[in-house]
Specification:
The protein is α/β, with parallel strands linked by helices. Helices cover 46% and strands 14% of the residues.
Length: 242
């Protein structure tokens, strides 16, 4: 099954977790995938494993985004898919305990970095008259848990950007989708020290390949259809509104 044959895709945060799963499933579906991350050694190892093309870059730097787009356009003349997946929870602490440095880092990685990619992709895709932008948000953006306020605010901002992209890009035949996942079997949850996230839960959480398949499904929709927003939740997680 190669429904994305000849499609050119970018996946940020492509060296770990959801990023690897998304990139791998896009490749299985026939796409040529560029993965972006800061750690050169880890990025190259993953690229070799899944047959992706690595580009070392920091999404929080607009100049890196310029370089990413120029390299791909020079080689492939187009971009069909952008998946803004790079993210970081930063320091998980109550808002009253947050430092300015952590606030800036979390907003830069989860929101500003994605916006930089969206602005460049939107400009290009409008001219092309086709393409799909997928922004990976978080269930934190629509719920509230102590310690996650800054991260949640950044992801909520990302969802608003995606809604505005939908409005602005729809007349050009370009699609924008926000995917809102919850618990995933990735290093993100381990780094966040979630007390209830043990091996049993991890086995039933969202696997990288799971969200990868969802991304592929979104990209393989008929060109005249779009899913503006999609929540993906594991049944093992109990979510109660605040």
């Amino acid at each position: 099954m190669h429904g994305l044959k000849n499609k050119i895709a970018i996946v940020t945060g492509g060296s770990t977790g959801f990023g690897v799963g998304i990139a791998n499933e896009l490749i299985k579906a026939g796409a040529k995938v560029y993965i972006i991350a800061r750690n050169k050694n880890k990025l190259n190892a993953v690229a070799n494993e899944i047959n992706a093309i690595p580009i070392v870059g920091d999404v929080t730097k607009s100049t890196d985004w310029d370089s990413i787009f120029s390299q791909i356009i020079e080689k492939d003349k187009k971009i069909d898919i952008l998946v803004n997946n790079a993210g970081s929870g930063g320091v998980i602490a109550e808002i009253s305990e947050q430092t300015d440095e952590n606030v800036e880092q979390v907003i830069a990685t989860n929101l500003c970095g994605a916006i930089y990619g969206c602005t460049r992709a939107a400009n290009l895709l409008k001219k092309q008259g086709f393409g799909t932008i997928i922004n990976i948000s978080s269930i934190c953006s629509v719920e509230a848990w102590s310690g996650w306020g800054i991260y949640a605010a950044a992801k909520a901002g990302l969802e608003q950007i995606t809604k505005h992209l939908y409005v602005e890009l729809r007349p050009y035949g370009v699609r924008a989708t926000s995917i809102i996942p919850s618990w995933g079997a990735t290093d993100f949850n381990l780094a966040s020290n979630l007390d209830s996230f043990d091996d049993h839960v991890a086995a039933k959480a969202i696997q990288p390949k799971d969200i990868g398949k969802v991304v592929v499904d979104v990209c393989q929709l008929p060109n005249h259809l779009v899913i503006p927003e999609l929540r993906l939740l594991p049944l093992v997680q109990k979510i109660e509104p605040y």
